[in-house]
Amino acid sequence: MGFLKSIGKFFAGLLVVSGITLFILSYFGILLVNNFDVLENDFNNNSNILFNDSEFNDLEKLCKDNPDDEGCINLKKEILNKIKEQIDKYVYHLNLARTLGIMTFALGFALFIVSLGFMEGIRNASLTSFIILLLSYVYHKFLIINALNRLIPENIAMIAGNWIVTSVNQTLSMILIPGATFLILTVGLYILKKKGLSNKNE
C-alpha cells in the first residue's frame, strides 16, 4: 500500500504541476492576443524607430518624411494586420490548452485525494499548487522581463515591450489569487493536522 500511495502521489503531483503550468502559459498567451491594441498603439506611435531595420525598408520609404501620408498609414495597417493574423491563428489552441490545463489539474487534485485520503490529499494538492504558482510568479516577474531587456533588440522592445509587460502584469495578478488561496488552505490544513495529533496524544 505504501508503494502504491507513493506512486499515486507522484503522478498526482505531476498532473497538478502540468495542469497549472499549462493553464498559466495559455492564459498569458490569451492575454497577448487580447492586449493587441497596446501593441498596435505603440507601433503607430513609435514606428519611426524601425527605420534602421532592413526588414522595414518599405516603411521607411513611405513614412520617414511623411508619417501622415495615406500610403504610410495603410502600410502600417497592413503590417499590423499581418501580425494580428499570425497571432489569431493560436487563439483556438490557447483556449484548448487552457481547458486541458484545468482538466489536468482537477484530475491531479482528485488523484491526491484518492491516494492519500481526503484531508491529506487536499493538503498535499494545495501545497504542490502553491509551490508551482510561486515558481510561476517568479518566472513571469523576473525571467520574462529580463529576457525582454537582454534578448530582444532595443527598437523592437520599445514597440513590443509595453504589450508584453502589460500581459505579464495581468498574469501576475491572476497568479496571486489562487496562490494566496492555496497558501491559506495549506497552512489551515497543516494547523488542523497538528491539532489532531495533539488531541490524540492527550
Please, could you describe this protein's structure?
It is a single chain. The protein is an all-alpha fold. It has one domain. The chain is 88% helix and 0% strand. It contains 7 helices and no strands. Helix 2 packs antiparallel against helix 7. The chain is elongated. The two termini are 29 Å apart. The model has no long low-confidence stretch (mean pLDDT 85).
- In sequence order, what are the helices and strands, one letter per element? HHHHHHH
Largest beta-sheet details = none
Number of discrete domains: 1
How far apart, in Å, are the first and last alpha carbons? 29 Å
Work out the strand percent.
under 5%
Treating each run of at least 4 consecutive H or I residues as one helix, how many helices?
7
List segments where confidence is low: pLDDT < 50 over at least 5 consecutive residues: none
The mean pLDDT is: 85
Output the structural class: mainly alpha
Give the tags:
7 helices, mainly alpha, 0% strand, 202 residues, 88% helix, single chain
